[in-house]
Write a structure and sequence with these properties.
With 258 residues, this protein is an alpha/beta fold. The chain has 2 domains: 82 residues, no CATH class; 135 residues, Rossmann fold (3-Layer(aba) Sandwich). 41% of the residues lie in helices and 17% in strands. The protein has 11 helices and 11 strands. It has a 5-stranded parallel sheet with strand order 8-7-9-10-11, with helices on both faces. The protein has a 4-stranded mixed sheet with strand order 3-4-6-5, sandwiched between helices. A hairpin with a 4-residue loop joins strand 5 and strand 6. Helix 1 packs antiparallel against helix 2. The protein is globular and about 65 Å long. The mean pLDDT is 89.
Length: 258
């Protein structure tokens, strides 16, 4: 793995001192890495605060492995979503230091290597059937360096389960609410907390759920203010957005302390 350079000046100095070859310097200064089947965005972290994330669904195991190789060369945190076990087994044979999170179908840099934030995100899951999407959200936030507290199986059909955890949920700075069926949990949580809520509808439900469309429409029509709705089964989007808010909050505090 190569050293990471934070500026053009650092790259030029490394070349001058023979610490970096000209070819490696060109790679460090590139805006993207051309792989033929993909152009890897190497400046994503500089623009958005986190490296390019690999959407594994629809890509071959060989393609994913080559993309990971490019990102690792540039010392980026690895996050690959929607990876089945067969692809994961192949990828981990090439990169055994990465972790596979089976429930979320996600490959990442080891969580132990990622410092976590002071503030945390509350991730709520209505039912056990929604766990894959909830874990995708929770792990995405954690891989982005944000602490997470999980509150699972707290759907409205047994609302006492939610209320017994409400004080800890409120202490979080953002809530991600994962629910299928009619998606009522998002509205309930939205009416109980004073921070942003990201609602993620899932495709869990009987026929009239329409593979999550009913849940999506229900969440969009929530009367609880402060609730934003992600796409169906988009746990990644919920985790990413929540992590951005935590980073903004902590960066603001750092600026004030200076």
């Amino acid at each position: 793995m190569s050293h990471s350079y934070n500026s053009i000046e650092e790259v030029l100095k490394a070349v001058k001192s023979n610490q970096l070859s000209i070819n490696d310097a060109k790679a460090q200064l590139s805006h993207y890495d051309e792989l033929g089947f993909a152009k890897i965005d190497l400046h994503r972290a500089q623009r958005q605060g986190f490296p390019e994330v690999i959407f594994g669904q629809g890509k071959t195991k060989e393609q994913i492995t080559k993309i990971i190789s490019s990102l690792i060369f540039h010392n980026e945190v690895i996050l690959v979503t929607r990876v089945d076990e067969m692809k994961a087994k192949y990828i981990l044979q090439h990169y055994p230091n990465l972790e596979y999170h089976q429930t979320a179908q996600l490959i990442s840099t080891p969580l132990k290597d990622i410092p976590q934030s002071k503030y945390y995100v509350s991730v709520l899951c209505a039912g056990t059937s929604d766990l894959p999407i909830a874990e995708e959200a929770a792990l995405t936030a954690e891989i982005m360096g944000v602490s997470v507290k999980r509150f699972y199986d707290v759907g409205v059909s047994g609302i006492h389960r939610l209320l017994s955890n409400i004080h800890d949920i409120r202490r979080g700075k953002v809530s991600i609410v994962i629910a299928g069926m009619e998606g009522a949990l998002a509205s309930v949580v939205g009416g109980l907390v004073n921070h942003p809520v990201y609602a993620v509808p899932t495709s869990v439900g009987y026929g009239a759920n329409l593979n999550g469309v009913t849940t999506l429409l229900s969440m969009i029509n929530s009367c609880a203010p402060g609730t934003s709705v992600l796409n169906i089964n988009n746990g990644f989007g919920g985790g990413y957005n929540a992590a951005q808010i935590i980073h903004m909050l902590e960066n603001k505090e750092s600026e004030v302390s200076l």
